[in-house]
Amino acid sequence: MNKLKPLDYFFYIIYSTFTAILYGILVYFLIYRLLANGNMLHAYLWNIVSMVIFLFLDKLGTNQLLSKNLKVDGNTIWLYLTSMVSFKTTLYLFYAFILIVSRVSLLEPGIIDPEFQRFVLSIEYTLVLLVAYDKFFEHLTKDDQRLRKISKKFDKFFNRLKQ
């Protein structure tokens, strides 16, 4: 396997920052302004819905790229190019930015546009849900692996009893 060079890390950081900015623009204009019409509660709920949808699509895309019978076409190439940074990475970077902006806006209220401050405050706690989601599936995966090991041992035990 090839080792990553410092330039690779630089491009990865640039690409992940770019995707986080794009996601932020999408969330602000599509969710906060259009769907929620500036309503903080609606923005929060729509943001949760969009996060779940995008995480599902990211997982679906990864599964497709890792499938054994992958057919390379325009969609697959687009999927490959957009999968350089996982959506979860994009979300973590975006919400880190949101938390920083949120704290700054609370410590120095006049520094940020009030409308943008409402947007930031409406979605800052979505990070908590992202972390909970991430940890839940991490533990679910560990439990699945643990149960598979235990089941294998019991399969051997029950096979010996049958003989």
Which features characterize this protein?
mainly alpha; 0% strand; 163 residues
Q: Could you tell me the mean pLDDT? A: 85
Count of DSSP helices?
A: 6
Into which percentage range does the β-strand content fall? Answer: under 5%
Largest sheet: none
- Give unreliable regions as ranges: none
The global form is: extended
How much is the radius of gyration in Å? 21 Å
The domain tally reads 1
Say how many strands there are.
0
Elements, N to C (H/E): HHHHHH
Distance between the termini: 46 Å
**Roughly what percent helix?**
over 70%
Secondary structure category: mainly alpha
Describe the structure.
The protein is an all-alpha fold and 163 residues long. It has one domain. Helices cover 82% and strands 0% of the residues. It has six helices and no strands. Helix 2 crosses helix 5.
Topology (SSEs and partners):
Layout lengths: L5 H30 L4 H27 L7 H9 L4 H21 L6 H10 L2 H37 L1
What's this entry about, in short?
The chain is mainly α and about 160 residues long.
